[in-house]
Design brief:
Helix content is about 45%, strand content about 20%. Strand 1 and strand 2 (about 65-75) form a beta hairpin. With about 150 residues, it is α+β, with helices and mostly antiparallel strands. It is built from 4 helices and 3 strands, in the order H-E-E-H-H-H-E. The longest helix is centred in the N-terminal third of the chain and has 29 residues, at about 1-30.
């Protein structure tokens, strides 16, 4: 009888130790401090000078009437590029190029984030192709949409 009690006590102690060990192991993983997604040493690119190009409403190329409305901002590569945009005429030319580029798009092209990103990259290429270089670089770093709506 005493052997059975000792055997049950030993089995109980072993189960208790395994449970405590598993709790410490898994609890340490769960309660562990989360790793930072960004390290403090990471270099973050600061935004360049911005030019607000205003609101656009453009008819799309679909058979049925569809429009896209958006607010456009150009992020520039340098302050010299900002001076370039302050000269008269460049903003009108850029606005015309944006309208022409967006008018060739279809509703389905702009329904996804990927489609909008592609339109943004296309606008960046088209605007840089028509503008003179500023400080030896293309003046526009990126085209940003502040608002975007399809109807």
């Amino acid at each position: 009888m005493l052997k059975k009690i000792i055997l049950f006590a030993l089995v109980g102690i072993v189960i208790l130790l395994v449970g405590v060990g598993a709790g410490v192991f898994f609890g340490g993983k769960i309660l562990k401090q989360p790793a930072y997604v960004t390290s403090p040493e990471r270099q973050v690119e600061m935004p360049g000078p911005m030019v607000n190009m205003g609101d656009f409403t453009v008819n799309l190329a679909d058979r049925e009437p569809k429009i896209v409305r958006f607010k456009l901002v150009l992020e520039l590569n340098s302050p010299k590029a900002l001076n370039l945009f302050s000269e008269s005429g460049w903003q009108s030319r850029v606005k015309n190029e944006v309208i022409l580029a967006m008018k060739d798009r279809f509703y389905d092209d702009l329904r996804t984030a990927e489609g909008i990103l592609e339109a943004s990259q296309d606008l960046t290429r088209r605007i840089n192709a028509m503008m003179p270089l500023a400080d030896g670089r293309a003046p526009v770093k990126r085209v940003l949409f502040e608002e975007f709506m399809l109807q």
